[in-house]
Specification:
Elements (H helix, E strand, L loop, with lengths): L12 H13 L6 E5 L7 E4 L2 E7 L5 E2 L2 E2 L1 H10 L10 E5 L4 H13 L2 E6 L4 H9 L3 H12 L4 E4 L2 H11 L5 E3 L6 H6 L7 E6 L8 H13 L6 E4 L5 H10 L6 E4 L5 H9 L1 E6 L3 E2 L3 H8 L4 E4 L3 E2 L2 H6 L3 E4 L3 H15 L17 H13 L1
Parallel strand pairs: 1-3, 6-7, 7-8, 8-9, 10-11, 10-13, 11-12, 13-15, 14-16, 15-17
Antiparallel strand pairs: 2-3, 4-5
Helix pairs in contact: 1-14, 2-3, 4-5, 8-13
């Protein structure tokens, strides 16, 4: 399995997915993960029955607010080292695309299958918005990379639909959605420090935490001193703090970049009256699934590339609003008014039991075998 970022050194939905998946796969197969050198000491270490190999030096994933091209190139070239290793099948994370080309070469030379997990499809329009004129080149890279695996695992049904629309029926695409440990969620107790609003995620531009802070500022201007807890870290952290200061809500916004254990994330989610996820782009939304499992009302936006809205729409306590600060503010106001009449977090809804890490493991193992 190949991924440039792994838990706990880097935190996000895909890292959590790989942590839970590899631990479970290790009970049924010999699992090796090839990544950057996130740790000190020997280049190979073992944890939970999984062997982790450092095949490249550690480089920053981001250059300012965007993924680093230099890191992507160095990691991709480092994947040539897999030519020295023995394996039965290669599974890789599609981000940041370039390594898929090298892994296709490795798999072909070794006469082995290549399975790639696709978390989201950016598409031509989003690449153009992200990079301007250079976005066309990036889209061609993404579109070509899609055609290289023997089998693609899509992290959500909607991502699978987007892949099939690009690739047609000839390419193998199956769905293997992310999961959640409902027993661990149930065991977690709400943190003693409550908040009105919580958001969880990497602090990067497409997560649109700035939109949430603008909505909080609107509520304060309307005489509603709503508190907000931002759980996560990333390249946007300083800009978001400055935004909170500039809009006069700094005393009402708590930034928590120190949350390491998953149980602590659940505790902080349960301490919120509503969780808001204003992301402009989301391939699935593990944090959204976690908040729903914690029984807290969830608000997200109808941004076209925010596929987490499909999870929220399934929940009777979910709200999908327009991707604007006034719409978010109105939704928060309405949900908080309704939450004030409740007794704290509710029991998880039955449909959440569809999303388990064991089910994901079975789906991935089937794809690796066939």
């Amino acid at each position: 399995m190949v991924s440039d970022a792994i838990h706990p050194y880097h935190r996000g939905g895909k890292e959590l997915r790989y942590r839970e998946l590899t631990r479970r796969l290790a009970d049924r197969a010999e699992v090796h993960v090839y990544t950057m050198r996130w740790w000190s000491g020997p280049p190979v270490r073992t944890e939970d029955g999984v062997s982790f190999h450092a095949i490249s030096r550690l480089l920053p994933l981001y250059a300012n607010e965007r993924r680093s091209v230099r890191q992507a190139v160095v990691f991709a070239l480092s994947c040539l080292r897999l030519l020295r290793y023995r394996f039965d099948v290669l599974e890789a994370d599609h981000i940041p695309f370039l390594q898929v080309f090298v892994l296709r070469l490795v798999a072909t030379v070794k006469r082995k299958r290549l399975v790639v997990t696709w978390h989201e499809v950016w598409g031509r329009a989003y690449w153009r918005q992200y990079l301007g004129a250079a976005g066309l080149v990036a889209w061609l890279i993404e579109a070509t990379a899609m055609r290289l695996p023997d089998h693609i695992l899509a992290a959500s049904p909607q991502t699978a639909d987007r892949l099939r629309a690009c690739l047609g029926a000839r390419h193998r695409v199956s769905v293997a959605v992310n999961g959640i440990d409902l027993a661990e969620v149930a065991y977690a107790h709400a943190d003693q420090a409550p908040s009105d609003v919580a958001v969880v995620g990497r602090l990067v531009s497409h997560k649109r935490v700035d939109l949430l802070l603008a909505a909080i500022a609107l509520l304060h201007a309307d005489g509603r001193p709503v508190t907000c807890r931002v759980i996560g870290d990333g390249p946007e952290a300083t800009a978001l703090r400055e935004q909170a200061e500039a809009t006069g809500i700094a005393s009402a916004v708590e930034f928590r970049r120190d949350v390491a254990a998953q149980k602590d994330v659940y505790s902080l989610l349960k301490a919120a009256r509503v969780c808001v996820f204003p992301s402009a782009r989301e391939g699935f939304g593990v944090a959204v699934l976690e908040a729903l499992a914690c029984g807290v009302p969830v608000i997200t936006t109808s941004a076209p590339d925010n596929l987490a809205r499909h999870l929220v729409a399934r929940s009777r306590r979910g709200t999908v609003c327009d991707p604007s600060a006034p719409a978010l503010a109105a939704a928060i106001k309405a949900v908080l008014a309704d939450a004030g009449r409740g007794d704290g977090p509710a029991a998880p809804e039955p449909w959440l039991s569809e999303y388990t890490w064991d089910a994901l493991t079975d789906q991935v193992l089937e794809a690796l075998r066939t």
